[in-house]
Design brief:
The structure is a homodimer.
Chain A: H1 5-9, H2 20-39, E1 47-50, H3 53-65, E2 72-76, H4 81-91, E3 96-100, H5 110-118, E4 123-125, H6 139-146, E5 152-156, H7 168-173, E6 178-182, E7 193-197, H8 223-260, E8 264-265, E9 276-280, H9 286-295, H10 315-319, H11 324-327, E10 331-334, H12 341-358
Parallel strand pairs in A: 2-3, 2-4, 4-5, 5-6
Antiparallel strand pairs in A: 1-7, 6-7, 8-9, 9-10
Helix pairs in contact in A: 2-8, 3-4, 8-12
Chain lengths: 365, 365
């Protein structure tokens, strides 16, 4: 906030203007670009600022597809809707698509993946970490296996920034060409995100015009949000070890409490982000549980916020082979920097009472 | 700022989440939508929030084109690059395009326009007011003339919000189907804008995903910026009469000073916004003049900020038939709420000295 405030209050210059107000704004954006690049070990010229993760994912998929002859694209079956929907749109304009299956732990099945690679996809997208389960994919290995095909490989890293060490240079070496990041998932403001991209990849802009962001994303830069994203990315990268170890401890405490109450934790044994737990209680509807917990002051979700309007059960759990009657019970808890041991205990207690009531049993005190 | 701060500081809920933090954010967005709609006499459900004017213009042009069989589109020759560039992209995918010529006063030539309408364009876009000259088009008359063709008519109103009375209901009655607005042009923050659209118009989203904004613009909503846009639009609409009359007086004073110094004011006699003056001095390079004035503390532009990277002379002036050697001298001054009579006098004095020096003459004191 301290870094953003001047750009909201008095420094309202357009970064493309050549007068002093404009030059100051340009410098602030240049610095933010360096910060974001440094946080993921990329070169500043590889960072394209956008308005959000959804835009970055759309930009890569549609922008790359527009530079290629339609062919095969493949994405994991558990991608965020802002990957899956663009794929649907591209299918209507001549592209074929495959959805890479995942196993019960939510990880892309390597045999199926190898089979898809034999069909020479031109575009591939597999997320670094899933937004519902927190499951982390071995993107480096997947990209590496695809290198021989010449496919352009993208990864949605929205959930990973600030939670996993991200090294774009190393990922790029294994064949990852583009990476989506989002500011507000790492303590930054809404409204700023990035597509980090290997400059050998050709993209057609989604938003064309004044030629901002190397011609790949036109529009007056959102200076305050970009500045906030830069600082947040830097802080997140600095704190990642400490943050992760703190989150891991909270998560372990939380999940042992959950297990003791009889919850099923989805992908509980898979490599996961330290802040995400997706679980269900047999016979209890997720929506109902979320509503009851909300009234007690606990903000949790029954799935992805991005598809809360959608009453269908989670496509991620379906892809993992979870039965619909269990998936209907799914509740997601995302822990943050502010959460404490005491809150975990309060939450587990509230859950015990609520679940007990909902199961029509006397709560065990 | 006061309206935005809570959403930046503590109310960080995702507006699609169903818990209390989410519901509060949703309510804030709903209220902002009502404010923006009321400011331009539209229905809230006609307002699609985007990240900026460039996105709104791209969304309309590409989104509508994707729902139609390729045919003819026509836009004025003086549109902003974020209209002209999408048109170029669409030409590469099968569309034909015409660029409506303007007269010396920067207004679309009605005869040529009538001729284009005979060729049955499917998409039309003419801006409400130009970003370089401030010239206002008679969009209602142009749209009305196009109604018989069944074309979808869009207008870029980015420069007009807060400066002209905008009545979307009335414009829609004359055949305007969509209107682009931008928050930061009306005292709001960067990062929030809108496409106001007649719901009978079909659009394919540029950014697809979670289905936000009636499926036309996915992505976690930028709550603080949208809230700020709402309040700014409301204030701008309330203050428009007072603001315009104050700006008109400043503009008259400024332009009489300019004329006395021998400046040529582009489209000086055309209906123009009260805050924009585009002018040139014979034999003086615009860039040079802007640089000298900047060093004296005056933030002015040699053209549109959006194309400051572009060393070519203004495409707007070229379309108006201004000779390149004169267009090269163009300087744009945009007055704002904060400007005073005294500043106009200081600026005219600075200009007199600087222009005198640049012309190699002794400054007349």
């Amino acid at each position: 906030m301290a870094a953003m405030l001047p750009w909201l209050e008095s420094q309202y210059g357009n970064a493309s203007s050549r007068h002093e107000y404009g030059r100051r704004a340009r410098q602030a954006i240049d610095e933010a670009r360096q910060r974001v690049a440094a946080a993921v070990n990329a070169h500043p010229t590889e960072v394209i600022f956008t308005s959000g993760g959804s835009e970055s994912n759309n930009l890569f998929l549609k922008g790359a597809a527009a530079c290629l002859k339609p062919g095969l694209m493949a994405v994991s079956a558990i991608e965020h809707p802002c990957v899956l929907k663009p794929v649907e749109q591209l299918r209507r304009s001549g592209w074929d698509a495959r959805y890479l299956p995942v196993d019960g732990a939510g990880r892309v099945k390597t045999d199926d993946y190898a089979g898809v690679l034999l069909d020479r996809p031109k575009l591939l997208s597999v997320m670094l970490a899933n937004n519902e389960t927190g499951v982390v994919q071995d993107v480096a290995a997947l990209a590496n296996a695809a290198m021989v095909t010449g496919a352009w490989f993208h990864s949605d890293g929205v959930q990973a920034l600030g939670k996993l060490d991200i090294d774009f240079r190393a990922l790029n070496g294994t064949g990852v060409h583009a990476l989506t990041l989002s500011g507000h998932k790492a303590g930054g403001p809404k409204g700023a995100a990035a597509l980090v991209i290997d400059k050998r990849i050709e993209l057609q802009p989604l938003i064309s015009g004044g030629g901002h962001e190397r011609g790949l994303r036109s529009g007056t830069e959102n200076v305050p949000a970009i500045v906030g994203f830069g600082v947040a990315a830097e802080l997140a990268a600095q704190r990642i070890a400490e943050h992760s170890s703190r989150m891991r401890k909270l998560q372990a405490k939380f999940e042992s409490g959950l297990s003791a109450l009889g919850a099923r934790i989805f992908a509980g044994d898979a490599p996961r982000l330290a802040n995400t737990t997706f679980f269900a209680f047999a016979g209890i509807d997720g929506e109902t549980l979320v509503g009851k917990l909300d009234r007690e002051g606990f903000a949790v979700a029954s799935g992805a916020a991005c598809s809360s309007a959608n009453p269908e059960s989670s496509h991620v759990l379906r892809a993992m082979g979870v039965a619909p009657e269990i998936a209907r019970g799914a509740v997601r808890v995302s822990l943050g920097d502010g959460n404490t041991d005491a809150e975990i205990e309060q939450f587990i207690n509230a859950l015990q009472v609520t679940v007990g009531r909902l199961q029509g049993l006397t709560a065990v005190s």
